[in-house]
Amino acid sequence: MLIYSLLSIDEHQNLSHRKTQKMNCAQAETISIVDYLSYKGIYPTEKRYKGGSEIRYYSPIRDSDKTPSFDVNIEKNVWFDLGASVGGGLVRGVQEMYGFSVSQALEDIERTGLYKQGQTYSPSEPEKILYLEERSSAHKKEVNNTKQETTTIKAVKPLNNGALVQYLESRHINIDIARQDLVEIYYTRSTNPNKTLFTIGMLNNSGEGYEINNPVGARSSSDKKSFKSFLGKTKDITSININSGKNLVVFEGWPDFEAFKSHYQFFDFEHSAIILGSTALVKRAIEEIKNYTYDHIFLYLDNDEAGRKATQKITDALKGSYSMTDKSFMYQNHTDFNEWVINR
User: Which residue ranges in the chain fall short of pLDDT 70?
Assistant: First the structure.
């Protein structure tokens, strides 16, 4: 379901440092979500009319969506994912699809060429929207193959691969600290089963899934394509040292958590931690937090729209019951904690 956008490590790290951005959020939101999804090869499955013209998709932000549950209102140009209980405009949708910051999402949207200077949003004409069943059999086969691509984990090993170690070092993450939580995973994709790829992963609470972020299929340190995503059967948050009576830190992704431990030299991390993996799992994190008491909760979520909304959801749900501090002010000029560490 998830369509991966493969960026070089250097490009991935530099996107948020660019001083100018050709496209802004207001311009991006004039682009039809339907047109953007079609550009990515994602087509709706049915028409719906609830409070306006709506169409429904298999969710492009959740690999586990077996029943269409992602609605787009073509009049308002907004989406809502029923399974993840999140929604928003085009920029937020691209963030959720790829795990991008706002600036990275804008870069991706701009590359489609769907924006024309000075345009305003014009709703898609319902009768002109192409649905899955209306496509040619050849195109249907292409879409189905994309949706049904599977990955098979072949081996999970301690973190020693030179290319992956070099990647972590480029993100200023201490290897000895990283080895406490991360592993290297060898896997294949159904579209090319003879090619074995490898990645860095952190096991989540389900015990059946890994959050990954690394050079894609790196065969050497010069192979620098990068993405972050998920491998395994079940997507979930990751809890570390969860116990009452401790301080709790909450991060959006494991690179920020590992950079945090490396920066403060936590070789023996004694506090509690929750890594979301995706802001779509913020409700699950709140449920986990409520099972324990903490001396204090420190929130280190991303400095983008999705991160700020997740921080607000946690704060609203837990205020009055826990003492909390939003630490994003520390890296207010950067997208996330890891980026702040790299630039220091």
Answer: 1-21, 49-52, 63-65, 127, 132-149, 214-228
- Is residue 2 one of the residues assigned to a domain? no
Q: Any idea which residue has 């090869």 for tokens?
A: 41
Claim to verify: residue 214 and residue 266 sit in the same structural domain:
no
pLDDT of residue 17: 40
Residues 218 and 162: their CA atoms lie apart, in Å, by 10
Write the CB contacts of 7 (distance below 8 Å, at least 6 apart in sequence).
15, 225, 226, 227
Query: What confidence score (pLDDT) does residue 6 get?
Result: 31
**What distances in angstroms separate CA 150 from CA 6, 64, 332, 338, one per listed residue?**
18, 12, 38, 30
The pLDDT, as a whole number, for residue 192 is 81
Residue range 112-139, pLDDT digits in tens: 889 988 899 988 777 677 776 655 444 4
Number of domains in the chain: 3
69 CB neighbour count, 10 Å cutoff: 16
Examine the domain organization and report whether 140 and 189 are in the same domain: no
Domain boundary among 113, 147, 181: 147
Domain annotation covers residue 135: yes
Within this chain, do residues 294 and 335 fall inside the same structural domain, yes or no?
yes
Give the pTM.
0.59
Distances (CA, A) of 88 to 81, 152, 286: 9, 33, 21
73 and 135: one domain? Answer: yes
Q: Are residues 166 and 202 in the same domain?
A: yes
Q: What is the pLDDT of residues 281-327, one digit of tens each?
A: 899 999 999 999 999 999 999 988 888 999 999 999 999 999 999 99
Q: Are residues 245 and 321 in the same domain?
A: yes
260 and 329: one domain? yes
Domain of 225 in residue numbering reads as 151-232
